[in-house]
Amino acid sequence: MSAFTLFQRDDCHLCDQALAVLAEARLPEFESVWIDDDDALEARYGIRVPVLRRGDGEELEWPFDAATVRAFASHTR
Asked: Whole-model pTM?
């Protein structure tokens, strides 16, 4: 299991931008979870995606930049 999860949906330009930010931030491996076909995730995240969640349950909502992601990731220790 990854220390990070990116909640996203198909055909989401903001999700595509978030993926580019995560690459720029050089985030360690993360899991992508698509909310489109999951009623519970859709209810929880809906229009909030993309959302990056750490293993401790803390979430970072869009918009975020590479510096914010690096700071968010550094709190996993």
From this structure: 0.93
